[in-house]
Design brief:
Number of helices: 14
Structural class: mainly alpha
Order of helices and strands: HEEHHHHHHHHHHHHH
Number of strands: 2
Strand content: under 5%
Largest sheet: 2 strands, antiparallel
Radius of gyration: 28 Å
Length: 319
């Protein structure tokens, strides 16, 4: 009588397990976690020291009454939040913040789309042009903004003189002396600084579009414009979403550009919530109020990012 051999659990008649078969051992999850601790502990300590502890301490300060001298007079609950939210200048500051973020991000993405499309073509000196695009990204934001601050000076600024020489201005103009021109100039500088990262992100997205897809569109009779809006742009969805999301976070929290361009202007007409936090801390020396506004800022960013991800759905596949 021939012996029947069960091969459902083995790879051969010899009873040896199939190569690649799962050989999980019960109870090894905790051991693996302990083995991973020495490798992850430095990163966890860094995250705690740089992110979690300062954030927790900021939240703690936002619920305290702290004097100008830095003396803690005890808990006041949510009173600091109510004080910040009831300030008369806050509505205009929130509007400035919305205009600041929306203008910089939209202009940056639109200009970067054109630059990426141009830099994706083959032309003499393309490598040098691509390297030149990196200059604003490689330079310090403070240094770049300082160059524009001096260039826009009405007395000795080279940009002001150039605009007068080409007759765009009748006389030198104080771009950094009034809230509106200073704010608009800050938007232009922020776009200039944000272009390199966004352009290279979109270039990477263009490189990932299959050539066969573009060729198929041409065979079907689609022109350049229809191919771009029907094939190229939809395939850039993830790249645009990533670039926009990072720009939203960076621009919302940006301090150096507005601080250097509008810091000398009295009042709050050219301020965003981020520069308002700085002024509360520097001018009024209110650690408690500035901490409360920082927490509100953080919550606003979380809500904006969540809404953006929910509406845009960046990981949705292109049909």
């Amino acid at each position: 009588m021939s012996q029947t051999i069960d091969t459902t659990q083995t790879g051969t008649a010899t009873g040896r397990p199939r190569r690649g078969a799962s050989q999980k051992r019960p109870g090894t999850g905790g051991t693996d976690l302990l083995h991973a601790v020495p490798w992850t502990l430095p990163a966890l300590i860094l995250i705690f020291g740089v992110v979690l502890f300062p954030a927790g301490y900021m939240i703690f300060n936002s619920t305290r009454k702290i004097s100008v001298a830095g003396v803690d007079h005890g808990s006041v609950g949510f009173q600091n939040y109510l004080t910040v939210l009831s300030r008369p200048e806050l509505p205009s500051i929130l509007l400035n913040t919305l205009l600041w973020v929306a203008s910089v991000v939209v202009l940056t993405v639109v200009i970067s789309l054109a630059l990426a499309q141009f830099l994706n073509k083959n032309f003499p000196g393309r490598q040098w042009v691509r390297m030149a695009i990196l200059v604003p990204w490689a330079a310090s934001v403070v240094m770049t903004t300082t160059v524009f601050v001096y260039g826009l000076d009405p007395f000795y600024g080279i940009i002001n003189k150039f605009l007068v020489d080409i007759h765009l201005l009748a006389e030198p103009y104080g771009f950094t002396k009034e809230p509106v021109p200073a704010f608009l100039s800050s938007i232009a500088i922020a776009v200039f600084v944000s272009l390199p990262f966004t352009t290279y992100t979109l270039l990477a997205g263009l490189a990932g579009i299959p050539g066969d897809m573009l060729e198929a569109a041409k065979v079907d009779g689609a022109g350049a414009v229809r191919t771009y809006f029907g094939v190229t742009l939809p395939n850039l969805r993830s790249a645009i979403a990533l670039a926009s999301l990072i720009n939203i976070i960076n621009v919302f929290n940006s301090l150096p550009i507005l601080k250097l361009m509008t810091g000398a202007i009295p009042g709050y007409k050219a301020d965003t919530t981020t520069t308002y936090v700085f002024k509360l801390l520097q001018n009024e020396q209110r650690i408690d109020l500035s901490s409360a506004l920082s927490v509100i800022n953080f919550l606003i960013v979380l809500v904006v990012v969540a809404l953006y991800l929910w509406i845009v759905k960046p990981m949705k596949e292109v049909s």
